[in-house]
Each structure stands twice: as structure tokens, then as C-alpha cells.
Amino acid sequence: MLPWGVLEEEDWRILRDLYALAPDCAKFLSRRLRMDPGETMLRLRRLEALGFLERVRGRFLKKKGLRRPKHMNHTYYELSREARLHLRALLFAEEVKDA
């Protein structure tokens, strides 16, 4: 069971971004979310330690929108299975409320 109660607003922004746009590194996350890169790295490490994120293994990353696999020069993070399923349920519940 993940400790969802300890998350801050910035953590939620990171998790939602990774859910929507697939795995990414701290550099590009901090640019998109307009956060300090150092703070983003600390938050990613903390979320990984809590079990919300996992590091992407391997040397190349296949990502939507890219013609060919990208060589990973940085540490890329993705949602853990439990976090992905929980976020999907939350987002689906929000869509049902709006309808």
C-alpha cells in the first residue's frame, strides 16, 4: 500500500505528468513543470523511495512521438504499477463526475 497521504502538490504534479506523458528524466520534467531541477531530482528520489516511481532499465527508451528509440543520457523514471493503477482510477472517477 502506497502512502498517498504524504504527497505534496508538487509530487502530484510530477505523478500526473508521468502518467500522461510516459517516462522522463528530471531535466525535462523540471522544464515542463517550471520547477527547480534540484528540487525535481530530490522529489523524484523521494517518490522512488516511497514506491511511487521506478527507474527505467536499459539504454534506450521507446517513447510516443519519437521515430526511433532515444538513448537515455539521464536517469528516467516511470510510475510503479500500483501508482499507475491508482492514478487511473482517480482520473476515471474525475471524468465520470464531469460527465
Written overview of the protein:
- With 99 residues, this protein is α+β, with helices and mostly antiparallel strands.
- Helix content is 54%, strand content 13%.
- The strands form two sheets. The protein has a three-stranded antiparallel sheet. Strands 3-4 form a two-stranded antiparallel ribbon.
- Strand 3 (60-61) and strand 4 form a beta hairpin.
Low-confidence stretches: none
Task: Please tell me the overall pLDDT.
Answer: 86
Per DSSP, the total helix count is: 4
**Classification by helices and strands:** alpha+beta
User: What characteristic shape results from the CA principal axes?
Assistant: globular
Strand content: 5-15%
Rg calculated over all Cα atoms: 14 Å
Whole-Å distance between the termini? 30 Å
Helix content: 40-55%
The main sheet comes to: 3 strands, antiparallel
Query: How are the strands of the largest sheet arranged?
Result: 1-5-2
Total beta strands: 5
What letter string, H or E per element, gives the SSE order?
A: HEHHEEEEH
